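=== Structural record ===
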Amino acid sequence: MKKIITSVSALTLVGILSACSPAPEADSLEAAVNHESRTDKYVARDEFRNPKETLKFFELDPTMTVVEVWPGGGWYTEILAPYLAEEGQLYAAHFPENSGSDYYQNSLDKFKDKISTNPLYGNVVLTEFAPGRDTEIAPARSADRVLTFRNLHNWYMQEGEKGVREAFRQFYQTLTPNGLLGIVDHRLPESADAEAYKDSGYVKESWVIDLAEQAGFEFVASSEINANPADTADHPKGVWTLPPTLALGDENRKKYEAIGESDRFTLKFRKPVTD
């Protein structure tokens, strides 16, 4: 496994944390969500992303080993890293360094700076993930949770269904028996044409469930925590028409701001105990 940043030892981390902003209570997800270290513009999006409710649905515990796949700018990492800092472990499976994409490289570089300069991220191990590539996002059968937020549509747009299947295979290998896979993504209505997968950023909930089950996962539950009935999922620039991207600029800006962020499904799967 390619380890880019080595985690700080427990003793060192405790010493650093005592000298700076305190980490949240080990048993308090709410404290992690409300922690003063979070970026203000990220906090402003809590009403659409519902982090406390989402992570509770994924049955998170501060003693767990968690893999966050494609954390991007670290929106969820700002909650997960402090929450897991004392007793758990967070693997951040980010964009690969040799992706050839300036956007991916800039995002990865900013993420590296973020976790290397803030003591609250001392227990984060940075790995990499790319759809269709056999990378090790964490040691096999080591993770209690694998979580990914609004990413499956990207993998489909890059590699087609094969890329999503390969992602599920890797997640399955990484989880411990009885471990959970948590997924949030932009929801395409079941009645819509699946051709929209190619460029809209939306995918069907039933399609994701089917592919996960084909990979060996057991479907546990879905939640409407991140649903937005006002989103019709048929916008000129796909999901990026809506906040926070607002791809049309000032064109119909008030309309799209009134809709808010996308309608999203929230799904939970289990790796069978017998595997």
Remarks:
- The chain has one domain: 10-230.
- The domain at 10-230 is CATH 3.40.50.150 (Rossmann fold).
